[in-house]
Every structure is written in C-alpha cells, then in structure tokens.
# Entry
Amino acid sequence: MRGAPLPAAPRPRDWLLRYLPLYAGGAAAIVAQQAVLAARDLLVRASVDGITAGDAAAGMRAAQWVLVATLAAAALRVSSRLQIFTAAARAERRMRALLLERMLNQGPGFFRRMPPGDAMSRATHDLAQVRGMLSLGVNGIVYSVCGMVSALAVMLHLSWRLTLAAMVVAPGLALTRKLLAQRLFARHHEAQESMGALSGQAFRSLAGVRAVRALGLEEAERARFAAANRHHHDALVALSRVRAAMMPALAGVASLAGLGVFGYGGWMVMSGTLSWGEFAAFWVALLRLMGPLMGLGTVAAVVQRGRAAMDRMQAVFVAVPEIAGGTHPPLQSVRGEVEARGLTFRHGGAAVLQDVSFRVPPGGSLAVLGRTGSGKSTLVRLLARLEAAPPGSLFLDGVDMCDLPLDQVRRSIAYAPQDAFLFSTTVERNAAYGLDDPDTPAAGAAVRDALARAQVLAEAQALPLGLQTAVGEWGVQLSGGQRQRVALARAMARAAPVLVLDDPLSAVDAETEARVLAEMRAWTSGRTLVLATHRTAAARRCDAILVLDGGRVAEAGTHDALMAAGGAYAALVREQDGHEPDAGGAEPALAAQGVS
# Structure
C-alpha cells in the first residue's frame, strides 16, 4: 500500500505520505486503543464503587470487563505498532535504495566533498536514526497525543477541579521539554557529524593499510584515529549529559502533579465530594497521562536524532549530479567514431586540458601519450563520461555526448583504469561484471576469451580454486599486474564499440605488455580504441598518436610521421628506447651487466 509519490529530495513528511495507509491504520488502532482504555478507567470506577457499596457481584462483573478491556487494548497496541513499524521498515528500504541511486549518479567532485567513509555513515548509521524517527518517533507522538487526550477526557469527566490541580505543572513540563529538545538536536547533530568523520578516518586507514605499513606510519594513523575517536567520544558524552538530564527533569516536574492529586483528591474523598471509585479511576487515568508525559523525553530524543540524521542525508538527496544524460534520441547503433573539438577542461579553476582536438574513425585506434601530469587520464575519464565535459566538445558518432542518454554512452564505451578495482568476489565474477547475464554459457566463454587475451587466464587457473578463487577486498590476493589484467579483461568482455584504456598495463612487464597489446589489437579489429599510456612501445601500435604536454596537444600523427618530425614524440622514443629495452633484448642487456 502506497500513498503519494516521492519528491526529488524527500523530507520526513514525504515518507509519511508515501506510506500513509499503513500510518493511518496504525494511528486508527491507537485511537481505538485509547478509547478502550478510557472505557476501562470508567469500569474501574464502577468496580470500586460496587465493592465499597457492598455489591460485590456488581464489582466483580465490572472487574471482569476491566480485564477484557485491558486485553483488547493490548491487541490494538500490537496492531498499531505492527503497521507503523512495517511502514518505517519499507521507508528505510526505499530510502537506502534511493541513497545508493543518488550516490551512483554523482561525479568525482561529490566524493571529494564527501569521502567514502562519511557517505557510508550516512547510508547506515544515519539511515538507522531516520528509521527510528519514522517508527518509534511517529508511534510515540501519536500514542502520546491520543493517550493524553484520552486520559484528560476521563479526568475532566470525573472531576474538573482535581484535573486543574493536576495540570498546574503543565507549563513547567512543556518549557522543560522544549529547552532540552533544542539542546538534544544540536548534540545529536554534533555526534553524527563526528561519527561520519570517524568512519572516514577508519576507511582511509584500512584502504591504505599497505602504504601505511610500507612507510611505517602505523603510529601516525593510530594518532589520527585516536583524535577522531576522542572527538566522537566527547560529542557522545555531551549528548549523554543532555539525555541523562531529560528524564529526571520531566519526571520531577510530573511527580508534582501526582502529589497534588493525592493530597487534594484524598481531601475530596474524605469530604464526600468524590467517591472512592471516582478517585481510583482518576488515579488510573492520571497514571495513563503520566506515561506519555514521561515518554516525551524519549520521543523527543528519537525525533531530534532522526532530524539531525535526515539533515545529513539531505546533502545526498539534494546534490545535483555533475554528469547528466541529454534528451537526444538514443543512437540505433553505435559505429564507434570518437571526436574532440576544442576540448578545454578546468579542475579547481586550473586548466587541465586546453583546446584539445582529434578524431578517431570507427575501428581506428589512438594513443594518447605524455608524461605524468600531462592530462592523459583526465582526457580518457572525460571520454568515458566519468568527468563532466563541456557541451560541444566530445562527440560519439557525430552526436554531442552531453546530448546522448548517459546510459547509452557508458554502455557503448568500455573503460579500464590504471588503478584497477576488483570486487570481493571470484576472478570470474570480476571479469564478468558488467555483462547483462553473466551466468550464461556464452558469457562464460566471453570471459575466458577476455582473460586469455589479457594474458591472465593461465595464472588465474593456477590459483587454488581456479577462476572461482576469491580475490579478497580490492583484489588483495592478486598482484598489481594481475589486478590490472583482470580489470582489462572485464572491459574487453563487454565487447563495447569503443574501448578506452588508461595506462592499463603500467604494473606489467614489457614482455607481457607486448603480448597483451598484440592480442588486444587483433581483438579490437572493428572496434575503436583510445589508449592513454606513457610508453612509446605501446603507443606505436596504434594508428595515430596524440602527444600531450601540459594539457595541450604538442604533436599528433602516425609513429613514422612523428619520428620524421623529430619533435617531442621522437625525443620520448629515444629516451625510452635507451632505458627500456625491448622484450627480446632484456636478457642480453642484463647479462652484459653481469645479471643472470
């Protein structure tokens, strides 16, 4: 059962409207429960008055109905909680899916502002607090309001004078709750922000554990974590102080009402203006009133915690994706022509690429060559639509990539990064990631073919469980070169019209690289290849070469033409040929130095 649709950045009320039938059913059950409890209070009066008047039979009959009313109220209470908590659980499930969807749509700038650890904290810890607000909070608010109305109605019916005496403390109770609730919100917000910072620090330390150990920086990381942990501890202590004060403060103010009723009510009974049954029923109703009043502290804490968490989650919901698809109709078939026209890209105000232009025909290949920091990786990330390119600068089959549906562009361009990421699953599953149906025999054959062309199939089959060997978190069970080649196989297995590679063999020796590139060049026949590399040996295998220097095109042309020109490319070739012998000359060169 669903109510109103969700807006782009849903607030708590939107979730209530989304699951309104369940929330309304739960509220109706609470209203019915409180009506039954009001009737029970009046039955208490009849039972006590019957017994004190000497009519034991009438008193016992009323007492039996008190028991029936109590059981009925309990059943209604279970029904109300079941409906409200079910609605909150469904809202949590939808909210978690929406958070993941929004995060997946964000560009790299979003995750520079919100590190993965902080994002995880919002999607787990903060989400749990919002669920608590939508379950315990909503249930507590409805129960408190209905319970107070029901109890006050009974109390006024029995004696308006005694009710006024009990309500003398109401203004003090409301003021106390308001002041403490404001402090609770601030403390909860601080605690959840510090939790996000602590999660981020833990994530960074564990993600970079190899570098930490290699550099002997364990103590420095412990100190950073200890500082974040101490800050979170201080925030929790400050929160605990407010929460510790709330219940005693509310209970102290509320107890004054009980003392007033006990004294004034006893006098009324002794003076004959109130019967024993009316006094007993009034006392039972007052206890029912004290329950919601005392519970206001807990409800306020849950709601304020949920509000603070929702504020943090709103940062995800309201974030505008840096990269969005266009409204151009999807291409019927993608030939694979890739073109850049005066591409200029800035990051943080500084120009990373300036006036870059090139065209790769369908089935052609282009090597993007340059030293570290020349802009190679930025260019291929722009081609893969992982960064937001300016409109009118990058084209696929003659259509501006910014105008095409984002899903089609990314499905048409397979991308393999230099910093290969593997999921914590098997080798085969990692290579098959991105295939529509990885469990079919055809997909299995495509994966094995891609692994073989990436020169990693034999190594993978030699693992303890072959292709079914789990690679561990981030692929830690494999070497750097193996991770890169599995990631390359993953890109190749998709058989997309365009293959974009960002120095995917930087951790592989020259001989293996040569075999991979030879296989890949044969495999890409009919497919477009854009290869970013710092190695001229890899670049010369492509149809054309684009040399970047400081984000600008220094040279462009074929290997032979650029060598004849004697410019930057020729200088790089001479430099690398002098320091990086070909695969066939590696052993003689080493032997000449006395290495065998």
DSSP finds 21 helices and ten strands in the chain. The longest strand covers residues 350-360.
